[in-house]
DNA sequence: CAGTGGTCTAGACCACCAC
DNA sequence: TGGTGGTCTAGACCACTGC
């Protein structure tokens, strides 16, 4: 895990921050850190830049680098982007028992859009499946997923009734570690009313996106319709860089 | 803004992507780009890395760099990929004329939650204001905001009817550059039906969050209720960083 | 094997801040 | 003015892909 220089630095600095090694909330300057860790300043910068994106520290040009006081308060506000819910197969369940019911499972030809989304040729096939997800036997999400068969040739309905991403990790030696999500809301549709027990004034939360493997390959295109009470998405956004 | 090398590269590459200069969705390799732009490979890497974080492209080690197909289709109001506006006072308006109507404007004592959110003592006051945002004179969002008076002592209703963040930047010499957002959805309430012309089966998109200054100070706590048709949020998530 | 992106280094110079 | 973070360079070497 920590075989990369900047990751080692991040881990170490986090530990020190947590252990209150910097009671004045100020970190040593970058050049000193480079010397302390015996690495280049560039690597220190990479580590600090990463931590800044995570909201752990703030950098002030000309002044120094400081710990974000809210980070120390360990509020629920630093659950970094999307970690609250729904990004992976394993939804954070808050002690509730998660379940999955596969509603259909087929192999189809992708249409043009799907070919674009998953970087496929017209001749390649994809799995298409619909799953109902439950917490304590109560349905909260309908999911339609598409996965190229070449990326998971042995995928079965049984695997889909468990965690597909865990399967990818343990059996295929790959990892799903990035996702591009488009988030929106819509009035409940027939399916939502029927499967999620929504009243007609109660909405659906919609998450649509592509999941990527760690080598950058688009692995799954997924449309998730959530019961609005289970729909919450946290995001920490850096407005610079844009 | 475009006086920085990597920002020039980003702008240029974005334009080329939008102009479909790469119909096979593949960008030139980093070394070629460095040569083309007559900059170092490090600067190209910085530009591409930034674009990758924004979800515009994704990189495949050993294979190349590719355009994210979902980026080309996006039409979000809250994307922080396509513009330098992002989730600030200035919503991306797609050519529509934005407007702001201040519905109320007061100074109040923060309750316990607000004290925590804005890092305040019980004795400190905050501005509380409600704003209706419009596009081409059509209301699309109701916003309730709270700002500590000590952070913007001269704030007025008139400033609030324009861009508060622009005021902070130009008059106070600070910058709002980070935000934590919690995103959800809810059935339309009375206010939403009345001010946003929602039918009772049509939902609200909810964005609640804290905006930070560049020194890490929490500047504003805001609750935004959006007409669901204007509610779309794009997010590119790295599942590793935790 | 050639080509691609990933990591890391060493150092130059710039922009900003506080004294 | 001295110290800080920000930008940029030039290049070495590694890890992975695909023929």
UniProtKB/TrEMBL annotation, chains A, B:
Domain HTH gntR-type: start-end pairs: 3-70
One Pfam family of this chain: UTRA
Entries under PROSITE patterns matching the protein: HTH_GNTR
SMART domains per record: HTH_GNTR (SM00345), UTRA (SM00866)
InterPro entries assigned to the protein according to its UniProt record, in alphabetical order: Bact_HTH_transcr_reg (IPR050679), Chorismate_lyase_/UTRA_dom_sf (IPR028978), Tscrpt_reg_HTH_GntR (IPR000524), UTRA (IPR011663), WH-like_DNA-bd_sf (IPR036388), WH_DNA-bd_sf (IPR036390)
Keywords: DNA-binding, Transcription, Transcription regulation
Transmembrane segments: none
The name this protein goes by in its record: GntR family transcriptional regulator
